[in-house]
Amino acid sequence: MAEPVIPDFGRGSSCVRENGTFCWDWVNSHWGDTLRPALVQHVVLTLIAVAVGFAIAFTLALIAYRRGWLTTPVVLVTGLLYTIPSLALFQLLVPFTGLSRTTAEIALVSYTLLILFRNTLAGLAGVPEEVRDAARGMGLTRRQLLWKVELPLAMPAIVAGLRIATVTVISLATVAVFIVNEGLGAPIYAGLQQTFKTELIAAGALCVALALAADALLVLAQRALTPWTRFARSA
Amino acid sequence: MNSSNTAQTEGPHAYPRAATLELRNVRKVYPGAARPAIDDLSLTVPAGDICVLVGPSGCGKTTAMRLVNRMIEPTGGEILLDGASVMERKPAELRREIGYVIQQIGLFPHQTIADNIATVPRLLGWEKQRVATRVRELLELVQLPPELASRYPAQLSGGQRQRVGVARALAADPPLLLMDEPFGAIDPIARHRLQDELLQLQARVRKTIVFVTHDIDEAIKLGDRIAILREGGVLAQYAPPDELLAAPADEFVASFVGRDRALKRLALSRVGELALLPADGTAHGDTIAPDTSLRDALSLLISDGDRPLAVSDGNGGVAGLVSLELIRGALHG
User: Under CATH, what is the fold of the domain A34-226?
Assistant: First the structure.
């Protein structure tokens, strides 16, 4: 017996066909071809931006810690970068680096610099003077003082900076879709241009979940790295 | 290129247990300062002695101490440790051989007590097992329970932290110890106990110690020799406590040691050290122990109707009597 001929509305379920608010089965069927690749790209975009931003800001902070005059110009320049609207910054960069991932990364990195620089420097400056004095008095060299005492003690402030920078980049990286069709910005943008909203909602939720997960991961990392902070300083 | 400097990685046993410290015409003038912070300071601390640097604030006592381990570089003069100039050493290497204790202690908040104490031994490259053994020894030496080893400084009381600071300074068995007002931030009762403990500790380890304080009573109690500095880093007098109290060099020293200097001197001697008056028969009333200070004996004498006091011999008998005249005689003898 032949199948009755039914008009083909696509392979979607009844929820999709009836344009439901949120369709789990769409998420299920498009996880592999749309959402998961976008999520992975988003993670990569974020990791590169935070890693490069941290390398630059950390190095600048170490130099500024020794040469105080550098602090003001670095804060001014990174502060200026921070204030440029992301879309405008993308437009400014396109003539130089084109519609490329590099353009997106440059913009994302520039937003991490101020917070990472300031927090690293504040962490180093917050090391108690008597701790530094005792360390020098016991014969630690400058390098040993930095790596064995000052940086470990600055760790909570540095991780706090990384948390803010990471969450900021995860959120901002969605806008990178105007430059490269990568990351969770792609399904969000696609979702915005159709009446069917599941793609938009799913991608947006993934973005929020990613930010929360990254933040939680950094908190756990900090607890593992700074066990002493659990004990309130009483003196 | 071969360096003539023999790297000291073997640890403390190659060091003398205590070193002689000599300052010769040491000067420190800060750039732009009108007056020197330390002016022509010369003094010798014999090995194994406690030298207390004392004086009013701004007299340069801390500066003088910090010149020794080159936390501050001198402008002129010589500082010799067992005859060798500290200026010929690399500062970091020199400091690993000199114990360093400061008022705020400066324990590393991110390290356990054991790791704090192990700081210098690890810098010197000691083996793990040797470091662990040394940490246990030191906790015992400063009378801290071994279970504190795995705690963090924030979990300890002020007095415990101060003891850890001393243990950390002694870790590599340095021949010289610098202590900058180590008990200054501790409440008076705990401070007296820590002072007593330091003296007991010193009886065991016999280090050369340079101890900075602004408290003349602490100086008298702890010092084998006391250096009184006046403003501008000028040495006013350098003498053992008894000599300082008996014969202050000038009005400044006299006023700094206080008008009760006779009483302070009496506090330095015990009744058992006197040639007591013969006791006439049996003891009437209470006796005092032979280790009672002359100051306390005097207090009892003037409050107790001027009768000579019987001093016990420690075996239930009476060793002799102490009178006002005897105590007065001790001040002038």
Answer: MetI-like fold (1.10.3720)
